[in-house]
TrEMBL record:
The active site is at 444 (nucleophile). GO terms for molecular function: methyltransferase activity; RNA binding. The keyword Transferase applies. It comes from Acinonyx jubatus. This is Methyltransferase NSUN7 isoform X1.
Length: 725
């Protein structure tokens, strides 16, 4: 007996040592509740009971089914009862992460349960099999340590039953895990996963966080200041930095980048709680910024398969200063409308209208969509360019069945073909909207079949029968920030490959020429801006005096945008009428001015050709010139021929006084001779026109700018009018 006891003690010590070794070797893809000891953070302590129940129900729907001859563990079809708190976002994220982790290791976990004799020796109901799988994964991930239970948590009987079962088989489960590791010659069960899945999880653990600024609530400068007060420093790149830093994205001016380890800290600050900063994948920000670059002030937008409502909100924020309206289609249940309106109200969004019809069921000539000029298409895709599949499923409202593809590192050919066909149908339907001028197509896939394959096929087979211009591929409207991006965009597609700084993204812009009948003139644009109050304080065009006499009152421009269409139309009409009258008055003025040179009266336009009289000289034999005379005589001004100006250079002329400085005469000769020229004789002898007009008096402006008259000239020079001969 002693020997047996000592052997039992030795066996227990050996099993305990094996469990300790496993704790340092087993790696887990789940990082939602803590980190390993190597990071210095607390170890995982388990989940609340409600998370296990929800994760079991998710796993039940996405697990891999085996052929009947290979089935060793039977799963029931009845879902477990969930508590109301399972609707909380944090509970959902934890549940999906736990279910996805169990899915990746489904074969290994089933083998451990059979090797440890839990199955089929125990009489556990089939509907609890999914719960056993997810709780076993968490149990080994916690290094077979006890779970921490909160005093405020309401226990669930099914969870307590399974937990007691696993604790009673703890040593056998650890031994079965060790044998599995040895069988696959792996340091941990993590290394048994396909290489693509391992690389994906490695990127997910280090991928930076992207958050866009809600500029309806706060400006970027205020965000920078608030973050700086909390100890966050602005840098150019957040890679390989463990401090509290952030950077501004190069493609989207309103997107900030944070290191991945700061997420829990950031979620607790007011900027995120008050919807001033919103976490979202960068690919969605690229999509909405591409749409914004294609919009005019009053163009509407149609969003298809938006996924996350944050994408809709971001589009609304970017168009807040426009009169654009955003239509969102595909919302199946009207029961979500109050929640969505509440969310949009909190975020400051006002121009969103929800359509409950499926996109393919909406007619291209729907009266509600006649002002839609840009269609944003975010089709369901494989999403294999995304590093964190759980976030992709939750944020984009995708089918949980995609988790199967993520767990295997790829999509089956059959499923890929179905997705491609759906994407092609949606893109071709979007191209049928005759009023639309652009379609933005964006995916998170790395498969060419879902990206350029769909776009090129849609362009090739587009309908040319309708009376609109055909679509064509346009270059990216986003800045290209590196040589790699330029190389990837040579064929007019915008691509970002999955990397350590971003998820994969594909973006294509299809545009066509605007219908000439719908061309918007500059007047229309200014009128719409004036009607909305965007040009407050800017004088667009002055009304003529004749128009002012006709109108006793003038309606000022509105200082704030209004929703009354009649008021806007009235202001637009008034502005266009005022501009037309102003142009007519300019034409009349131009016609009057061009006819003046034929008259012999003095005009303001001739002032540029008239030089005012200079200071009088002391020589009585010369003419007297007065400067700045208050009441000039009629003969002291002349009427010259005015050159006609082109219409595009017509400007209002005002009479001015120009006094030109003395210059040298335009002929060759010595300086001494020039200094002796009698300037007064020059004025009398130099006559421009052959025929002297009535009341003509020669002026310096017609004499090639002669020298200033000199005083005290010798009297002999007066008898020689041309001394240079």
């Amino acid at each position: 007996m002693l020997r047996a006891t000592s052997e039992l003690e030795f066996s227990n010590e050996k099993n305990t040592e094996e469990i300790s070794q496993l704790a340092s070797l087993v790696l887990s893809g789940d990082t939602s509740t803590g980190e390993k000891n190597s990071t210095g953070l607390p170890e995982k302590t388990g989940y609340p009971d409600s998370v296990y129940i929800m994760a079991a129900n998710i796993f039940q729907g996405i697990r891999f089914e085996k052929s009947p001859e290979k089935v060793l563990i039977k799963y029931g079809n009845e879902p477990l009862r969930s508590l109301p708190e399972s609707e909380d976002e944090s509970f959902q994220r934890s549940s999906y992460e736990l279910a996805f982790s169990a899915l990746k290791f489904q074969d290994i976990l089933e083998a451990i349960l059979i090797d440890s004799c839990i199955f089929p020796s125990t009489t556990i109901p089939d509907h609890l099999s999914s719960l056993i799988i997810v709780m076993l994964y968490d149990f080994q991930d916690r290094k077979f340590q006890a779970r921490f239970l909160s005093d405020n948590e309401e226990p669930i009987a099914e969870v307590q039953e399974v937990e007691n079962l696993l604790n009673s088989f703890k040593i056998k489960l650890a031994a079965a895990l060790a044998r599995c590791r040895i069988k696959h010659d792996a340091l941990s069960i993590y290394h048994i996963l396909p290489e693509t899945v391992r690389n994906q999880e490695l990127r997910a653990s280090t991928l930076p966080l992207y958050a866009w600024i809600n500029t309806c609530k706060i400006s970027p400068e205020e965000v920078y200041y608030s973050l700086k007060k909390r100890g966050y420093n602005k840098v150019k790149s957040v890679l390989h930095i463990d401090d509290k830093v952030f950077a501004v994205d190069q493609h989207c001016y309103d997107v900030l980048i944070f290191p991945s380890h700061l997420k829990n800290n950031l979620l607790n600050i007011d900027l995120f709680k008050d919807y001033k900063l919103i976490f979202q994948d960068k690919s969605r920000s690229l999509a909405v910024h591409s749409v914004k670059a294609l919009l005019n002030m009053d163009d509407d937008i149609l969003m298809v398969n938006t996924g996350s409502w944050y994408t809709v909100a971001h589009m609304s924020i970017l168009t807040n200063n426009n009169t654009s309206k955003i239509f969102v289609c595909g919302v199946k249940s009207q029961a979500k409308d109050p929640d969505l309106k509440n969310l949009f109200t909190k975020m400051g969004c006002k121009n969103i209208e929800i359509l409950h019809e499926a996109f393919l069921n909406i007619e291209s000539k729907d009266h509600r969509l006649q002002k839609v000029k840009v269609i944003l298409l975010l089709p369901r895709c494989s999403g294999l360019g995304v590093s964190n599949p759980v976030e992709f499923i939750l944020n984009e409202h995708e089918d949980t069945g995609l988790l199967k593809d993520f767990s295997q590192g790829g999509t089956s050919e059959d499923k890929l073909h179905i997705l491609v066909q759906q994407q092609y149908e949606q893109l071709t339907h979007a191209m049928k909207f005759t009023k639309a001028q652009a379609v933005v197509y964006c995916t998170c896939s790395v498969y060419p079949e879902e990206n350029e394959g769909v776009v090129k096929k849609a362009l090739e087979f587009q309908d040319h029968g309708i009376k609109v211009q055909p679509y064509r591929l346009s270059p990216p409207v986003l800045p290209l920030c590196s040589l790699k991006e330029i190389h990837l965009s040579t064929d007019k597609f915008f691509r970002m490959e999955p990397s350590e700084i971003t998820n994969g993204c594909f973006l294509s812009v299809l545009t066509r020429e605007r219908d000439p009948s719908e061309a918007v003139s500059v007047k229309d644009v200014l009128a719409r801006a004036a009607a909305k109050g965007l040009l407050d304080g800017i004088e667009l065009g002055k009304a003529s005096k004749r128009e002012k006499k006709k109108k006793k009152s003038k309606i000022p421009l509105s200082k704030a945008p209004t929703n009354d269409s009649n008021d806007i139309q009235m202001k637009i009409a008034e502005f266009l009428n005022r501009e037309s009258n102003a142009n007519a008055n300019r034409s009349e003025t131009l016609a009057t001015k061009t006819s003046l040179p034929q008259k012999n009266t003095t005009t303001a336009g001739s002032s540029s050709h008239v030089r005012k009289p200079n200071k009088p000289t002391s020589n009585p034999s010369g003419p007297t010139f007065m400067k700045n005379t208050a009441q000039p005589r009629p003969y002291e001004r002349q009427t010259n021929f005015v050159r006609s100006r082109p219409e595009d250079r017509v400007m209002a002329l005002k009479p001015v006084e120009i006094v030109l400085p003395p210059v040298m005469l335009p002929f060759s000769g010595s300086q001494g001779i020039k200094s002796q020229i009698p300037t007064q004789h020059f004025y009398y002898r130099w006559v421009g026109p052959n025929t002297v007009l009535p009341n003509y008096f020669p002026s310096p402006s017609t004499s090639r700018r002669g020298e200033k008259p000199r005083e005290n000239l010798p009297s002999s020079l007066l008898r020689h009018p041309r001394p240079w001969l």
